[in-house]
Design brief:
about 300 residues; alpha+beta; GMP Synthetase, Chain A, domain 3; Ribosomal Protein S8, Chain: A, domain 1; 3 domains; 4-stranded mixed β-sheet; 3-stranded mixed β-sheet; 7 helices; about 40% helix; extended
Length: about 300
């Protein structure tokens, strides 16, 4: 059963993020209709927020008329959240990361709690907690990626031993990876069905790696990247040597070779018959006219 809600935000992207957060769904699980685009106004006066309508499917089979539920970007009494389990930084590298991030978020005017864990190969995993994590995540994780890039550069600059720093918020990266895997399988199915290549939207290196890994064993397709950063994209291409394609090609080759042999045979038969007909025709002696037509020569 299809239902929808109307959600507002400063921009269309923020309204969509608010709808996803409100419904607890992923981006590919809803369809969006923009009811009113955001207007900035003049010098901040007369502006208006964006309003979108998010459609989603439910398992409720009761036949009733769906009514729009208008929700604001921020609720006055948000549901209480469970207190995060915070782990303090240990070691010089982790303390350097904590110092840099505290200073960065202070300049941004955002209150953020940090939790540190040690990952594989000595990597430092940082989980962000706060009230407005959607702003720090940004559109498709762009802001979160920028914070992670700055942290890696600031902490590893001038150091001989480089350490990898992974920054996440609200388990966004795992949710994004799962969403990309579903997208990859859906696109691969279309590529095999229609036998044509499909180019995806621009992605960063990590997201492209997720697509390549998800489709590396998918029969009938292959993947490669094209373009330059930041507009580098993944192309999901139909693999010509895939299952079902070779048999079709072999049938076409047999059919074309059969036509060619039949045509060649008919041409050779026609040439032989022409020669036989020419050999069976009577040969006439040449006629010689005499200067003395009245005299017979023995």
């Amino acid at each position: 059963m299809t239902k929808y809600i109307d959600v507002t935000g400063k921009t269309e992207d923020e309204a969509i993020e608010n709808a996803l957060r409100e419904l607890g769904l992923e981006r590919d699980e809803i369809s969006v209709e923009i009811l009113e685009r955001a207007r900035s106004g003049f010098l901040g006066i007369g502006g208006s927020p964006a309003i979108i309508r998010a459609f989603y499917e439910t398992e409720d089979e009761i036949a009733e008329e769906t009514k729009p539920v208008h929700r604001e970007a921020k609720t006055e009494n948000p549901a209480p959240k469970a207190a995060p389990v915070l782990k303090k930084a240990s070691g010089e590298k982790q303390k350097s990361v904590e110092k840099f991030l505290d200073g960065l978020f202070e300049q941004m005017g955002t209150k953020v709690d940090l939790s540190f864990t040690e990952g594989e190969d000595g990597a430092i995993n940082v989980e962000l907690y706060g009230d407005d994590m959607g702003t720090l995540i940004g559109r498709r994780g762009e802001t979160l990626d920028a914070i992670q890039h700055l942290a890696n550069y600031a902490v590893n600059r001038g150091e001989s031993g480089r350490v990898k720093i992974n920054i996440d918020a609200e388990n966004y990266r795992q949710k994004r990876a799962e969403s990309l895997e579903r997208l990859a399988e859906k696109v691969a199915g279309k590529v095999v069905k229609y036998r044509r290549n499909i180019t995806l939207e621009p992605m960063n290196a990590y997201e492209r790696h997720v697509i390549h890994t998800a489709l590396q064993d998918f029969s009938g397709v292959t993947t490669f990247s094209t373009g330059n950063e930041p507009n580098r994209r993944v192309v999901v291409a139909f693999e010509r040597g895939g299952k079902g394609d070779s048999s079709d090609r072999q049938r076409q080759q047999r059919a074309s070779s059969g036509k060619g042999s039949a045509a060649g045979k008919s041409r050779r038969t026609e040439q032989v018959e022409r020669k036989e007909n020419k050999a069976s025709e009577p040969v006439q002696a040449p006629v010689i006219e005499s200067k003395y037509p009245s005299r017979e020569w023995n």
